[in-house]
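Researcher: Checking consistency across runs. Here is Bifunctional NAD(P)H-hydrate repair enzyme again:
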Amino acid sequence: MEGMREFLETGVISAGRMRAVEENAALLGLSSLRMMESAGRALVDTILTYNPSRVLILCGKGNNGGDGMVAARYLQHLDAVDVVYPDSGQMTPEAAVQASLLGHCPVALHPVRCAADVEPLLRVFDEADLIVDAMLGTGASGAVREPLATLVALANKSPVPVVAVDIPTPGIRAARIVSFHRPKVEGADVVDIGIPLEAEVCTGPGDLALLPARAPGAHKGAGGEVLVVGGGPYQGAPYIAAMGALRAGADIVRIASPAYIPMPDLIYERLEGDVITNDHLETILGLVGRADVVVCGMGLGRASHDVVLAVAEAAEKAVFDADALARPLPAAKETIYTPHAGEFARMTGAEPPVDLVPRARSVKAAATAGTILLKGPVDVVSDGKRVRFNRTGTPAMTTGGTGDLLAGMAGALFCHLPAFEAACIAAYANGRAGMRAAEERGCGMLATDMLDFIPRELFGRGTPG
């Protein structure tokens, strides 16, 4: 991790990204309870700047409420600490632990089920020197329901300051917002809770939480349609990429190629001849128009670059790999490039540095037309603003075809995710699938041995190696 601090992102972080970082941290050994403890203790430092003697903490049933309960425990030396929380629905396990601990402290607990339960607590609101809003935080969605709506109304009527935890509950007035690790809204005060650098700058299982769930009523095609354009001099590469796209969740994968390999799960679009040429453009561009993502370049050879450029101009989203990575560089409206070191040099005119920090800087500087996923012992992903490292994988993945598989996976994920997130998750899951396959096959592993492990890693929430 030395030298990687420069790649930490700054500014407001989304709720989904924060959940990914927290899950990555938990799987590195920093438990949710320990993060909650740090958050609650840091919250207390802010509360004490107001020099209160009586504090009212409004808690929800999630981890935001758990942060407030930790703070209540550290404030038990004050004249009065009152904790109001919903007495309906199940708390998160971490919040339940904190509620249980408060039962052993000189803290007044006020469970409420409905608005009527709040009425006897008017005295508590009147006597408080400070109110803490720990009701919803990053888990807030939609209108605030009872009894929290009444708690919000009473907090707004009170003349005392309201300190909000992470994000103010919708509708509440907050004099101050305390955010943990990164701000969740503009204007928040940020406190450090000890999340390891690796949890944010490296990919991890938490990133998989960004994958959208398939709706129960989803129909054929809801998983996305991917078009693979490749083959000619080399036959197998586009088919490996196409199968990677299927295993990564695409519903329909078409392959436009002069080479035919019978695979019943793929839709083959025949291109006559031995090499893809401009004569095939009418057919290819018709297919580009119906695809969500185009994956192009595998096994193509160097004689088809004019076709690649035409595909790029027509495509909304595209992943370019292998022989497509040549100057002039193709660029769709949204693009992912998946080069190895030699292809990166062909794209940019310079070999990437060996040392990881300058290597990452070079990828970031080169990512002007789209997101670059530079493959290597440690993959580097950048969209020109952000940098992420992927450390999954195994030396057994030097076998041919693993990069084609990665390109296909990125294409499938790109159907539903932004380019940077799709590339990061593809790199992580591809490396994990390779590690799983190598456990059985060792250095005799084939790229196709990885196929069965891809869905397990992407959709089974696999654990890190």
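Researcher: Does this match what you'd expect to see?
Model: One thing to look at in this run: The mean pLDDT is 94.
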